[in-house]
């Protein structure tokens, strides 16, 4: 079978579309024939060898890339219940090597895809959809009347955070880099869009909120934005640092939080879908919202898996909007 592999960590130029061995499911595992593979900023981080060690990927070089895909169950290992050959499933599993024709996945991590949901929608709903779900409903606990700031609001996760925060009754301010992306942010329901390339986002948020600041900041950017954000956070506001696209932020002094009784959290999806109950709850709510039209997932850029390097390069360039997918 074919897969996107790296033989050493680095930028996207290290990716190779290579022949590898088709995996065989062991006890408790299933073999999934991937129909569509999801690309996430995490894949860029993993390719660079940041955040996750080779050991935590459960691997030695060459490493097959990818944590997310949607496909069809092709083979079932021993001691697996409730899954049948032919089932439409999706998954997010670090170390699964999802950017490949086939992946073996623990049966306990499988998410059944309802018939109304396409493979493309599923491979977006799983990482970015469930991330937006926990960020809005568990970490930020957004309620009607809250004001929230969403960085990277035109991106895959950011656009879904905007939609879900809006649905929860919030006033949403999104930041992005270009006019073309700003139009996408408005489509996601943002009430205000800040072009951070032209205006200082702190000044703009304080202007829009009459100096009161926002109740929650969703910051997936890190180094260039996190510390500045505390200057436009409302009293008792929550700073949600969930990514580090621009690099890791400098440590935050406790005294910074004391300025407004702020909270700071650094959440990760894996901890919010760690139980079977949470995985089912978050995935089924996201799928339901897509079916009901409450959340729109349709802004896809699809590459053949054989051109996977181009998909990674697009994500790395920061020029994408919505979800980047690869078709095996
Ligand atoms: N903690 C978690 O559970 C979790 C889960 C999923 C994702 N994440 C994080 O969420 C963030 C967004 O991930 P995503 O997969 O949805 O990606 P994405 O937002 O679709 O793509 C990245 C976007 O980041 C912006 N950006 C800002 N500074 C950048 C830079 N220096 N280089 C490249 N891009 C830059 C660009 O948008 P603009 O042009 O609008 O600036 C770009 O389109 C990442 O930090 C990721 O690690 C965290």
Structure description:
This protein is α/β, with parallel strands linked by helices. 29% of the residues lie in helices and 26% in strands. It has ten helices and 16 strands. The protein has helices at residues 41-47, 119-139, 156-167, 179-187, 201-208, 226-229, 254-258, 269-272, 276-291, 308-317; strands at residues 2-6, 15-19, 29-39, 63-64, 68-76, 88-92, 102-106, 111-112, 147-150, 171-176, 192-195, 214-219, 233-241, 263-265, 300-304, 323-327. The strands form three sheets. Strands 3, 5, 6, 7, 8, 15 and 16 form a seven-stranded mixed sheet that branches. A six-stranded parallel sheet has the order 11-10-9-12-13-14, sandwiched between helices. The chain has a three-stranded antiparallel sheet with strand order 2-1-4, with no helix packed on it. Strand 10 (171-176), helix 4 (179-187) and strand 11 form a beta-alpha-beta unit. Helix 2 crosses helix 3. The longest helix is centred in the middle third of the chain and has 21 residues, at 119-139. The chain is globular, with a radius of gyration of 20 Å. The chain starts with a strand and ends with a strand. The model has no long low-confidence stretch (mean pLDDT 96). NADP nicotinamide-adenine-dinucleotide phosphate is lined by residues 40-42, 127-128, 131, 152, 154-158, 176-177, 181, 220-221, 242-246, 267-269, 315, 318, 320. The site of NADP nicotinamide-adenine-dinucleotide phosphate has 28 residues, from helix 1, helix 2 and helix 3.
